[in-house]
């Protein structure tokens, strides 16, 4: 499969997530690009190998396409009249950045459970005393992305 | 996931004790926003093909994230 098509498929996945909040099933990508199921599977596996997105182990379902999560999480981002799900604290700010939109982030303190809300207005985050803790050093980020 | 929000340094420290985890890298919301802007602003673009380790390290350096935690 040529390089241009590989990256067009990546962009299609991201557009689909932005428009629907869900990642496209591999057969939706096949249909969109007039590929066979096997060709689309091969493209998804290649994009997973290149860390463009990450498949749920043992499947061809997209679990993570940073900053988007393919499944519901506790990091909600309200934007574009939709509720997106982020993978972590960082990605919850990443979604309004990626989409270039204002948003409200709804999450909670990892220890107390108290609600945390952050507002992005005019593409700037409003001031907050909230902190973000990164546990895993950068050199280990891709060992187990779901944990990181 | 271990990039988590905390309402204060106190709740972070209590969580670290409860998890028997080490205090690693902490960012304020303005710092995280600046990192997000650099990291994700072009993510929807057809031209985004990922980054090299060197490009990632340059972003961290530009944002003052220079401790061992951020090194490759």
The number of strands of chain B is 2
The total count of helices of chain A amounts to 4
Helix content of chain A: 25-40%
Fraction of residues in β-strands of chain A:
25-35%
Largest interface, counted by CB within 8 Å of the partner chain's CB: A-B, 52 and 47 residues
- Mean pLDDT of chain A, to the nearest integer, reads 95
Structural class of chain A: alpha+beta
The percent of residues in helical segments of chain B reads 40-55%
Strand order of the largest sheet of chain A: 5-4-6-7-8
Helix/strand/pairing class of chain B, anyone? mainly alpha
Strand content of chain B: 5-15%
- The residue ranges of chain A in which pLDDT falls below 50 over 5 or more consecutive positions are none
Main β sheet profile of chain B: none
Radius of gyration of chain A: 16 Å
Distance separating the two termini of chain A: 31 Å
Helix and strand pattern of chain B: EHEHH
What does this structure look like?
The complex is a heterodimer of chains A (148) and B (72). With 148 residues, chain A is an alpha+beta fold. Helix content of chain A is 34%, strand content 25%. In chain A, the strands form two sheets. Chain A has a five-stranded antiparallel β-sheet. Chain A has a three-stranded antiparallel β-sheet with strand order 1-2-3. In chain A, a hairpin with a 6-residue loop joins strand 6 and strand 7. The longest helix of chain A is centred in the first third of the chain and has 18 residues, at 3-20. The mean pLDDT of chain A is 95. By secondary structure, chain B is mostly helical. Chain B has helices at 9-19, 29-40, 53-62; strands spanning 3-6, 25-28. Chain B is elongated, with a radius of gyration of 15 Å. The relative contact order of chain B is 0.11. The model of chain B has no long low-confidence stretch (mean pLDDT 95). Classes of the chains: A alpha+beta (148), B mainly alpha (72). Chains A and B meet through helix 1, helix 4, strand 8 and strand 9 of A and strand 1, helix 1, strand 2 and helix 2 of B. Strand 9 (131-134) of chain A pairs antiparallel with strand 2 (25-28) of chain B.
């Amino acid at each position: 499969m040529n390089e241009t098509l590989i990256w067009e498929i990546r962009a299609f996945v991201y557009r689909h997530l932005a428009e629907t909040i869900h990642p496209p099933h591999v057969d939706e990508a096949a249909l969109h690009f007039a590929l066979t199921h096997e060709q689309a599977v091969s493209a998804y596996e290649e994009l997973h190998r290149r860390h463009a997105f990450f498949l749920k182990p043992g499947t061809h379902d997209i679990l993570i396409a940073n900053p988007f999560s393919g499944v519901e999480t506790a990091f909600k981002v309200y934007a574009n009249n939709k509720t997106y799900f982020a993978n972590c604290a960082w990605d919850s700010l990443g979604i309004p950045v990626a989409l270039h939109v204002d948003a409200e982030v709804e999450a909670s303190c990892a220890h107390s459970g108290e609600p945390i809300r952050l507002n992005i207005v005019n593409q700037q985050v409003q001031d907050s005393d909230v902190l973000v803790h990164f546990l895993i050093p950068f050199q280990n980020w891709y060992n187990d992305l779901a944990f990181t | 996931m271990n990039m988590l929000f905390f309402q204060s340094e106190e709740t972070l420290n209590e969580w670290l004790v409860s998890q028997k985890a080490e205090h690693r890298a902490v960012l304020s919301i303005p710092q995280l926003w600046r990192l997000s802007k650099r990291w994700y602003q072009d993510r929807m673009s057809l031209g985004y093909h990922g980054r090299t380790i060197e490009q990632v390290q340059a972003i961290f350096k530009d944002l003052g994230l220079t401790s061992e935690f951020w090194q490759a």
